[in-house]
Predict the structure of YesL family protein.
Amino acid sequence: MGGLMGGLYRLSEWIMRMAGANLLWFICSLPVFLLLFLFMFGTSQETLDQLSVMLENPQQYLLSFSVPMLLYGTVGSIFLFPATSALFSVARKWTIGEEDVSVFKTFFKSYKTNFKQALLGGIIYSFIYMLVAINILFYRDISTFISTVFLIFLVLVMVSTFHYFSILAHLHMKTFGMVKNAFLITLGKPFTSLLMIISITVVVWISIKFSFLIFFFMGSVIAVLSFWYFHRIFSTIQMNRQEDELAEEQPAALQGEETSNEQNDKDKQ
């Protein structure tokens, strides 16, 4: 099927794939979104007033801030991280050219396979996010410079989180190794990391503007974009490594050829 009808058919296929994967991710992450919804719309005015007072004097209420952060981090580690890991596995299949795989089977197979590492990664990242957020609040009125440094570090942690999901979907290694490599990629490729976070920010902004996109496309689009950026970085690293190995092999081969020629000259003499 070609022409306009073929193009429309392909477009409808991708819409169904993206929407299906996003709905699975949203359903499996539902407790996290419910908590967020309750905080945004179920909080009383009195509680909001108390929160406003706490934000004006964050140093005095660090423990009060830590409790909800810990709760949200725990729920996120159990539900959001495994679901996002599964979504990135689906995005990986699409990015490397396996477009016709079953979204449902790929999602839940990855969910089951990577659950433990996604959970552990969620715990690690939740702890990092909590520490960074507490430091931003603590130094906000004490030192603008230190607070800004922690804010920049927060952005780096966010980028490395997306790289972590990509590594988990693409490679087999230990959890701490994945976290370490996610940070190394983020710091080693700052321009690509900047482009990625800008792209994700645009997607989130559009999704908030048109809220129905959150349920059908936001997560899928972010996963595809993130893995596409990661795959470009990974392919470049692999290519450079192969070139380095080839460069090391060539002198050895030339040395072997030179030794062989010297031996032949001696035999002739």
Summary: DSSP finds eleven helices and no strands in the chain. The chain has one domain: 3-268. Residues 3-268 form one domain.
